[in-house]
C-alpha cells in the first residue's frame, strides 16, 4: 500500500469517547490520524461527558463531524451510544471503532470491498482475525512520532498477545441493517460482555461473520473506571443478560 489516502467516502468511522485520562486523548488523536492518513472518509465522533474535553482546533484540523452529549453518569453507557451513532450514520457502510485500536489499512479496505460485493445485508465484519496485541506505552509513544502502521507490524513480537479471539475493538457492517434496532443490546450497561454478546447474538440470528486475516493493535492506556466493571452488582447483571443468549427461550 503506497498510494494512500484511499477512497472510503462510502464509509463512516463511528467513534464514541469519554476522555477519562491523558492517555485516552493521546490515543484518540493517534486513531484519528491513522484513519485520515490512509483514507478519504468521514469520521463521526461522539464525546460523552459532563463537559467537553476535545478541543475545537483538533476537530477542525481533522475535519471531524463532532457531537457532544452531556452525560455525567459514572457509568459510560457504550451500548446506547453505539446504537445512537449507527442511527445517525449517513454512509452506506460503517466501522464502529474504539479510541485505542489501530487496524491494518488493507484490512479496512478489504472489509468494505467484501460488504460492497455481498448481496446479503446481515453481515458483521471484523478487519482482523481475532488476534489483538497490546502495544506498550514505550512502543505507543514511538509509534506516535510517525503514525506509520508498519512500525506496529514490524515490532509485533514486542507486543503482548492480549486476546486470541477478540470480538471488540473495531467492527463494521451495512448501515441500513441496523437503523431500526441498532447493533447493541442496551440491557448491557457499562463495561462488560457487550462485544461477545453482540457477536453471538448476531451469529445465532444467522448473520454472516467475516474476519480479515490481519491482527489488531490496542494502544496502552491507564485503566480507569471505564475499563472495568463498575461494581459486582452491575457485573453480574450484565453477565446474566449475556447468558440469556444460550437459554432455550432465545
UniProtKB/TrEMBL annotation:
Q: Does the keyword Transferase apply?
A: yes
Q: Which protein, by its recorded name, is this?
A: Galactosyltransferase-related protein
Q: Which GO terms describe its molecular function?
A: glycosyltransferase activity
Looking up InterPro entries in the UniProt record yields: Galactosyl_T_C, Nucleotide-diphossugar_trans
What domain of life?
Bacteria
Question: Which lineage?
Answer: Bacteria, Pseudomonadati, Bacteroidota, Flavobacteriia, Flavobacteriales
Q: Where is the Galactosyltransferase C-terminal domain?
A: 161-221
| Keywords linked to the UniProt accession | Glycosyltransferase, Transferase
Amino acid at each position: 500500500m503506497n498510494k494512500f489516502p484511499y477512497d472510503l467516502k462510502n464509509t463512516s468511522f463511528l467513534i464514541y469517547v469519554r476522555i477519562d485520562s491523558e492517555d485516552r486523548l493521546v490515543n484518540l488523536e493517534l486513531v484519528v490520524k491513522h484513519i485520515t492518513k490512509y483514507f478519504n472518509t468521514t469520521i463521526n465522533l461522539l464525546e460523552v461527558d459532563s463537559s467537553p474535553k476535545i478541543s475545537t482546533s483538533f476537530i477542525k484540523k481533522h475535519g471531524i463531524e463532532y457531537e457532544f452529549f452531556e452525560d455525567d453518569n459514572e457509568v459510560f453507557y457504550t451500548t446506547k451510544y453505539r446504537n445512537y451513532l449507527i442511527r445517525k450514520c449517513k454512509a452506506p457502510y460503517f466501522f464502529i471503532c474504539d479510541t485505542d485500536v489501530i487496524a491494518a489499512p488493507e484490512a479496512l479496505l478489504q472489509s468494505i470491498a467484501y460488504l460492497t460485493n455481498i448481496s446479503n445485508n446481515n453481515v458483521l465484519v471484523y478487519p482482523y482475525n481475532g488476534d489483538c496485541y497490546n502495544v506498550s506505552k514505550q512502543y505507543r509513544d514511538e509509534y506516535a512520532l510517525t503514525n506509520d502502521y508498519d512500525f506496529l507490524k514490524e515490532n509485533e513480537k514486542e507486543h503482548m498477545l492480549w486476546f486470541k479471539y477478540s470480538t471488540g475493538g473495531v467492527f463494521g457492517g451495512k448501515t441500513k441493517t441496523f437503523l431500526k434496532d441498532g447493533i447493541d443490546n442496551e440491557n448491557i450497561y457499562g463495561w462488560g460482555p457487550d462485544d461477545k454478546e453482540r457477536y453471538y447474538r448476531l451469529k445465532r440470528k444467522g448473520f454472516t461473520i467475516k474476519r480479515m486475516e490481519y491482527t489488531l493493535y490496542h494502544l496502552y492506556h491507564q485503566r480507569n473506571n471505564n475499563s472495568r466493571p463498575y461494581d459486582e452488582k452491575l457485573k453480574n447483571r450484565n453477565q446474566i443478560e449475556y447468558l440469556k443468549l444460550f437459554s432455550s427461550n432465545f
